[in-house]
Design goal:
This protein is an alpha+beta fold and about 210 residues long. The protein is built from six helices and ten strands; from the N terminus they run ββααβββαβαβββαβα. The strands form two sheets. It has a six-stranded antiparallel beta sheet with strand order 5-4-3-2-1-10, with helices on both faces. α1 crosses α2. The radius of gyration is 16 Å and the shape is globular. It binds coenzyme A.
Length: about 210
Amino acid sequence: MLTTKRLRLRLWRDEDLPGFAALNSDPRVMQYMAKLLDRRESDASAERIKQHFVRHGFGLWAVELIGIADFIGFTGFSVPSFEAHFTPCVEIAWRLARDYWGFGYATEAAFAARDYGFAHLGFERVVSFTVPANQRSRNVMERIGMTRSPDDDFQHPLLPGGHPLRHHVLYRLARPAQRHEREESRIRCQDLLTDPFRTCSRAIRGRTSDG
Ligand SMILES: CC(C)(COP(=O)(O)OP(=O)(O)OC[C@H]1O[C@@H](n2cnc3c(N)ncnc32)[C@H](O)[C@@H]1OP(=O)(O)O)[C@@H](O)C(=O)NCCC(=O)NCCS
């Protein structure tokens, strides 16, 4: 679990599922996703997120707005299941319910995840990607220091040729030397995860070193 000034990034609970389904069926939140999710699809997505934690030792944390809302969305890491010129890799990602946009929560959560990934999960680099029009998400990427090269643009392999969302921009961020030592004192991180989790973490670290 990670704690920031306003947020808690934590493992998922069953009580998060209705809120997750609500944001996954909101056309404003899902504007740049391939499709809206119904309750069954949203629950299945949450289950995959939980399984990702088991398999890799990290994942997309549920985000809590401390003292105000138990669940506002997710932020964290995901290992893409598709192959592209930048995979295997670790993606940093976020999705918040519409009511919680415009307050800096995604950026705050992303900073915490970024720093935790570099300082405690051993990542050498992370990527993030979206469609060019998703400026809000690109702003988050840029605020946390990620940079884009047009040479890295790609066609998302899970979308069919000609799909309007197929073209993606890719952002990258490498771990700066010494960053983890500087940042560790700034963010209060409490690792609630078990030893097997850490073993998984070491495994993915090796696999993603060229990501
Ligand atoms: C991507 C997403 C999380 C970004 O949300 P967001 O609210 O724009 O981003 P932040 O939470 O960092 O908030 C930044 C905004 O809050 C404002 N803000 C207000 N109070 C703030 C504070 N205390 N600190 C920082 N920023 C603050 C900023 O000025 C900025 O406003 P702007 O958009 O007018 O420039 C959101 O749009 C989303 O969930 N989209 C759908 C899912 C998605 O596309 N995910 C990414 C797929 S790759």
